[in-house]
# Entry
Amino acid sequence: MRMMLRFSIPAEKGNQAIKDGSLGRTLDSILKKFKPEAAYFCPTGGKRGGMIFFDLAEGTTIVEVVEPLFSNLNAEVELVPVMNSDDLHKGIAKVAS
# Structure
């Protein structure tokens, strides 16, 4: 299932994580491990943040994805199932029939 991982990092922890290198290491490890379809980074709610779109093969993977953000960056994390336009059209076709 395609998921969107949305996260934000408190300013103080983000400043520290930039200085000690843990911000880059944490994000790189997530990107390497889960090979996302897309990843975007931006300010959100006045904090450092981003969105990572990836395939969630099984529910137990959730811990592997979010735990580094919690433990290394004190991030707020939200996981949302999402669809691309092809998925949407397939779903509409199923409902319409």
Q: What stands out?
A: The helical segments are 11-20, 22-34, 61-73, 85-96. Residues 2-96 form a domain with the Alpha-Beta Plaits fold (CATH 3.30.70.1060). DSSP finds four helices and four strands in the chain.
